[in-house]
Design goal:
The chain is mostly beta strands and about 475 residues long. Helices cover about 15% and strands about 35% of the residues. It contains 3 helices and 36 strands. The protein has a 4-stranded antiparallel β-sheet with strand order 6-35-34-33, with no helix packed on it. The protein has a 4-stranded antiparallel β-sheet with strand order 7-8-9-10, with no helix packed on it. A hairpin with a 4-residue loop joins strand 30 and strand 31.
Length: about 475
């Protein structure tokens, strides 16, 4: 029985040969103008694809995917063509990798070249990183104060990794601080006068201290002419150096070594080898008590000569010295900025900027911290400490006028310009920048480091940690808006 949807169609007999069917089932309404079926879209049949065209319907997603698959199959890729295509892809990939590697190598080469250039400039003493313009004055609430010493703090140092602060005071004690938490990690208590034989540590005012660049050794010097060597990690006592005939007022390790330079009120410089626990040599030249000493990586050091009003550069291998004059009072502190430039402070209230190639200061700021006293009897505030951020254009100075001042060195260190002041009450006896330049540490006391000429009762003995914030770098969008 035939289906109501299909009818038999007549077929030409010649197409019935070769095993083909003699009849074809034909759907009602397909090509039948008289059929009762509804009109349908025309069906166009080709060899490889099937398309349905309609005035009212779009191509369905399934049919479109089939069409794309069949169109791809239209092109039969031979094995040789496939190999050639894959080889080209592989070669392009290799070329991209080589280009990326060449860019990375060029970037690394530029970095290495930049570092080498900086090292060369640093060794020549000509490296000057211009960062002073970006430093902002901190808020008073951002300054941290660490208290632990009973008497005025006289000196402090910061480890090269900026993790620890070591401080010493007139109470003969040494404290190791953790910078992040501000907690005491270790305290070496001072002893009473007359207990030198049985007490491990200082029994007189500590005037100076230094730490080696690798953080292995800590050295401290006191009024009793002694130099103590400690293991910085554990604060264990290692050696005691004797030989100076006056109070030890300056200590500094040569960078990258364990050679120690010491200065004393006996007007001499001594050289020590801490690894060997050995004395090396003594240098003479100053005409008065030496008040400060500093050195970097070269085999030389700089000193401030107190009342002889001279700054001296000591060339250790040649056993020679260069003499510089410029201050009108006692030069109480000195610090190297780089291998060829230094900053000093004196009790005439002036801050001096020097080059080792000039016998006179490149720049001098008189009355850097103002004046005090009654009208007609006014005198300048003494500059009791100076500090320099190594190989940069930023220096700092401290006095007893309740502030620490930061300065910008002009191009080629020809000028000192004030940046801002930070309120600090008391004698600023020691200043140190961190290696990263992120903060400045001030050791403050009620009395001057070297004497007891007068006392500020309102001051508190402590360590002030002053953050050095940087101005935010404008984004490209902000730069465009500004333009």
């Amino acid at each position: 029985m035939s289906s109501p949807f299909f009818i038999k169609a007549k077929v030409n007999p010649k197409f019935a040969k070769k095993g083909k069917p003699a009849t074809v089932l034909k759907r009602k309404g397909d090509g039948d103008p008289g059929g009762k079926g509804k009109p349908r879209a025309k069906k166009l049949i080709s060899k490889h694809n099937e398309e349905i065209s309609s005035d009212s319907e779009t191509e369905s997603p399934i049919v479109a995917r089939k069409r794309q698959t069949i169109e791809r199959d239209d092109y039969d890729e031979t094995p040789q063509e496939k190999k050639l295509r894959l080889a080209k892809l592989y070669l392009n990939q290799l070329k991209e990798e080589e280009d990326d590697k060449a860019e990375d190598d060029a970037f690394e080469t530029d970095l290495v070249a930049g570092r080498l250039q900086e090292e060369v400039l640093e060794q020549k003493g000509k490296l000057q990183r211009l960062i002073a313009k970006d430093i902002m004055a901190p808020d008073a609430s951002e300054i941290r104060v660490l208290r632990g010493h009973k008497l005025p703090i006289t000196c402090l140092v910061i480890s090269s990794d900026d993790k620890y602060i070591f401080s010493a005071a007139k109470d003969c004690s040494i404290i190791k601080w953790d910078f992040e938490s501000g907690k005491k990690l270790h305290t070496i208590h001072g002893g009473r006068k007359g207990t030198e034989d049985r007490h491990v540590g200082h029994t007189a005012h500590i005037l100076c201290m230094a730490i080696s660049s690798d953080g292995k050794y800590l050295a401290t010097g006191d009024v009793n002419k002694l130099i103590m060597i400690w293991e910085a990690k554990t604060c264990k006592h290692l050696y005691k150096f004797t030989g100076h005939k006056g109070p030890v007022s300056g200590l500094s390790f040569r960078r990258g070594t364990h050679d120690l330079y010491s200065a004393s009120h006996d007007r001499s410089i001594k050289v020590w080898n801490v690894d060997e626990n050995a004395y090396v040599e003594t240098l003479f030249g100053h005409q008065d008590a030496i008040t400060g000493l500093d050195c970097l990586s070269r085999e030389c050091c700089v000193t401030s000569g107190g009342r002889d009003r001279s700054v001296r550069v000591w060339k250790i291998p040649e056993e020679s010295q260069l003499v510089f004059h410029g201050h009108e009072g006692s030069i109480d502190c000195i610090q190297l900025i780089n291998e060829e430039h230094m900053v000093s402070g004196a009790d005439d209230g002036s801050v001096g900027l020097w080059s080792v190639n000039k016998k006179r200061p490149l720049s001098t700021v008189k009355q850097a911290h103002g004046r005090h006293g009654e009208a007609g009897l006014q005198q300048a505030h003494w500059v009791s400490s100076v500090a320099a951020l190594q190989n940069s254009d930023t220096v700092a100075s401290g006095s007893h006028n309740s502030e620490v001042k930061l300065w910008k060195c002009g191009q080629n260190y020809r000028k000192l310009e004030p940046l801002f002041s930070v309120p600090v009450c008391g004698f600023v006896n020691s200043l140190k920048f961190s290696s990263s330049g992120q903060f400045l540490v001030a050791g403050v006391g009620q009395e001057h480091r070297l004497g007891r000429w007068w006392r500020l009762k309102e001051a508190k003995n402590g360590i002030y940690i002053i953050p050095l914030k940087r101005k935010p770098t404008p984004s490209p969008e902000e730069v465009k808006i500004a333009e």
